[in-house]
Design goal:
By secondary structure, the chain is α/β, with parallel strands linked by helices. The chain is 24% helix and 27% strand.
Amino acid sequence: MSKSIVLVPHGAGNIASLVELFHAIGRFPKVAESPDQLNGADLAVVPGVGASGSAMRRLHDTGFADALQTLHAREHRILGICVGAQIMFEDLHEDNCKGLALLPGNVSRLAGDAFHNGWSGIHAVTPSPAAKPALLKTAEKNFYFNHGYQINTDAPMQERGITRGEHALLAYFLHGHLCGIQFHPEKSQAVGVAFIDNVMKHYGL
């Protein structure tokens, strides 16, 4: 039986590129037209480019914010990408607004108002050195980023990716039924495709 993957529109998402990305791994997501269509989904995907404030306003106006919080309460799988990952947290400094509060933490401006744009290497961190990463498995570990805000959280994670270099930034996280990706898998070429495939396999999709 095929699994249901549903993309959540909020007016600023990279929907077409993500559809192509999922097609590359043999998955065929649908774009939700109403919040009710999330009820039977095996995975809800919240994409995003642009500002978190406008994304949250759109989600509230369309009812998708309540629907996503209901999914979270039921421990249904949710994948957030870029802004979609950021709005999973409580406080969003961009536009000084509240996120979905699925996890504790905030999203703040990068130090010095910097902008993280381009390819960066990342490494996986797991709770135990003996635990192998479930998501970051490729030999090549450079991914494409394009963001000016960072996720700050002390929530325990099954796995998290941290950027290499002077400033360590959260690149992705896995927390039970929640997965967030700060980099752009759809722009990260073969490693992005492999990463999303690993997410799907981890969730049995």
